[in-house]
Fold each of these.
Amino acid sequence: MPESPEVQALAEALDERFTGREIRDVDVIEFRTTKTRTRPPTALVGERVTGATRHGKHLDLAVGASQHLVVSLGRHGWARVREVDGAALPEDAPPALVALTFDDGGVLEFTDAGGWVSIGLSVVDDPAEVPAVAKLGPDPADPDFSRADFDRAVVGRRKQVKAVLQEQESLAGIGNAYSDEILHTAKFSPVVHAAALTEAERDRLFEATTGVIADAIAARRGIPIDQLKAAKVAAMRVHGRAGEPCPVCGDTIRDFSFASTIAQYCPTDQTHGELLPLREGSTAE
């Protein structure tokens, strides 16, 4: 699932490539991607892009005087740019579900590699008209994000700290992968309740949260759009690394079941050697 560092890099790349360009055509191949049926993406034909930004994991293309194309990327959604003289797509490339053609011949395509359509496009006057954007909590990547913002999300929460980190209403932009990385950096068990953390432990978690996200954004900046997902995978220290040695202590990284997915942790660094449960039928290898 795209998370804030990759979506930030995507937004910056699209801002540089398409700001000032006129949308000449919009082809909606998969109608289920359109979430504002009375204002489909085709209504943007003839308008110019005025910028691209991010809200949590959501992409926002500002268009014309006051319109926004908000793209909720979902679990497997992404974007790609096809130039007039560009190379052919690989055979296993996911199909385009929506394509925007610009006045210089460039095409911005939105794709979804999942087994169901998780990507959604909304045309609105204010990004907050999209419910998922309206309910977003403060963003740890925001320069104004404070310890007070963090404490409001964490203090007193009788909820596993990994769940709090991924709760978009509490902290915007973090998902399964970066919550694993944050907790490994802070050396916390993912299943400890947020309410059990001391002030000193919250200090450590705050620093890990802001640091991991800021470092990841800096590392992704400037990477070509089609390489961002691979760069994310390559940069992970524990997420997706089950069976490999921990880069800090050398212990074997393990899988554990979390909500409807699988996450990873280091027993030595995070759980004092305790092995967390893995859903029946899953494997740690």
Amino acid sequence: MAAMLRENRRSAGEASRNGIVQRMVNLPRNIIGGFSRAMGIGRRNQHHLPYSSFLLQEPEEPIVGAEEWAFLGSFEQQYGSYHPFFYACQFMETLKLAEDDHKFMFLYLHSPERPFTPSFCRDTLCSELVVQFLDANFVCWGALASRGEGLQMAATFRPTSFPFCAVIAPAPGDSIAVLQQMQGPISPAELVEILQRTVEEQGLAFGGARAKQEEKIKADRRLREEQDAAYLASLKIDKEKEKLKINHKQYGKVKESAITKETQHKEVANFGVKDPQATQILIRFPNGERREQSFASTDKVQSIYRYIDSLGLPGIGNYRLVSSFPRKVYGVDQMGMTLKDSGLHPRGSLFLEPL
């Protein structure tokens, strides 16, 4: 017995020094697949009702959690109704309740025939100190180690002695995190001390992970909302641009129809005469159309682009201006050059080259 007490203290000390989960345990497939509705008790305000009182009630449906009732019946028959609140439902259901309450699960495997079980149940598990501490800080689940889910959990944990207790936390996938386990006899004060240390150390780690997960969910939600708002704003701007473009095209067509052939001939006749500071630019379009326009020699190449854009001609998208011979590109790098410095004064011929 002294060796078992030292083992419990040693395990608790290692958990205290490491401050991490002791190990991960994969759950049996039938336990994972057995997740169904909660049966029987389900709430803490029925905590001290003896098991026999439930047997007097005829359930409307068959009790699926018969193994859990078997544990409660066996336990209360020998040790009375004052004990930690054990949820009378399946393991996965109780684990989900613990996760929803942001608490760890206290698991107890009951083996009545083992020599240390009676003293542990009577003096430790049913003591007022342990009952109040477990009910306040844990979601408890118990089962007979010789049948049902209790037998499966015993095969999973493989305890070397009884009584056996463990502190469990949900983990991703088909596994659980074993934060602490205790085997053999242990006093109420020692049990509470180990559980308290586990809650303080592991609670920070799991609480921090849960907080990070919740913060990530909130951040993802905020990002989606910002992206949706940006998309709607962009959509509105695009619609306004399209509307302005349509209006601009309509205006350009009206203006173009108002230009008479006489005016066009007059522009050709006046090409490159009189004003020595004037620069005449002939612009050829991919469809064969030509336009001539007069600029000041101090105007910049960008002025030619603005003039072309103001025409609102259909089918003109991204483009650049190129002189045919010798070939020279008047693109983004030349936008700020004057027509005189760029070699287009007093007259120049440019071809609109689509990109």
Amino acid sequence: MSEIVVGGPAALGLALGAQTTVMLPVFLLGSLSPLIMADVGIDAFGLGMGVGLFYAAAALGSALLAPLADRADAWKVTRYCLLAVAIAGLAIATLGSAAWIIFAGLLVSGLTNGVIQPATNVVVSRFVPAARQGLAFGIKQSSIPLATMLGGFAVPVIGVSLGWKWAYAIAALTALLVAALLPKRREGTRSSSSTKGRLLPWHMLILLAVMSGLGAASANSMAAFLAPSMVAGGHSAEIAGIVLALGSAVSISVRLGMGYAADRGAVPLLPSVAILFAGGAFAYVLLTLSTALPVFIVGSLLAFGMGWGWSGISVLAIVRANLGAAGSATGVTQVGVFSGAVLGPMSFGWLAVNAGYPAAWAMMGIMTFAAACCAVGSEYLVSRHLAAGAAQ
């Protein structure tokens, strides 16, 4: 197979393909859960444990291994991650009749996901011109809704007709295909690769990680519990599914639109993140007020658009504040994202069972407002730090 010549569009396409492929194991677990649970014998608690294990492993991988993307060849790191995911997927497909095999495969996939996200951030920062990185990160950060969509399509197309193990086998082969397309030698890079690595002080990175974790906790909870919340409010599962689909489209549109605007200097980065978080907090408050369908629709679209539309522009802000150290910096912040993806849904579920959905939505509103405050604080600290550095 001939090697792809990596320019900006090709690098972005490969990064999006790699990041989406690594996310498939956990989203296939969710979409194919009725088939897997019946075949393997795990219950809803086991399903939640598998998802939590994936994100916990991702947090560990990001914390320990993300700096490799800066020090080593980011393409090589990405290729090794894809090969590991392919092995994990094939193990699940061939030996997945035992629950522990599935959990082991999710553990490996989670670890690689924690590494590949910073690695693909490095790829975009090096190969995509700075003037287009806003839109590029918006596209790349759409990998999660894209993986969700592919997982959904896998149910009728593969899972029901061929069996759920075939879906994992095809996902593994897809990982091998993407790995084969990656360039096998270092190439001249653009943008921040020519700049000496500049990493923000740890207290600023930790504040950004807390911001990202709070935002991810509320957004992942919203994506997981919006449908059952609507059903509990007296609406049909079909209506809930339509609202989820519309919300996902709005989220992607906001990510792309904000990235496009950032490339043209039309919006400040971290202040825009703060505004998006504030809008998300307002959306969650709406969901506490009424179970009427119009309120659910407006609240849900706002929650998806503003409460989950911050991802791309947030990564762009972190990359630009840490020139030449995108892997290390986003590795720290991704620890927050993955930790929030574990703790947020657990907290929401506990509150929903013990205090009701309105209380759970109220907690998500508080968390998202706290994320907005973290974004404001980060903007103040980072801008002062960069200004001081420029004055030296």
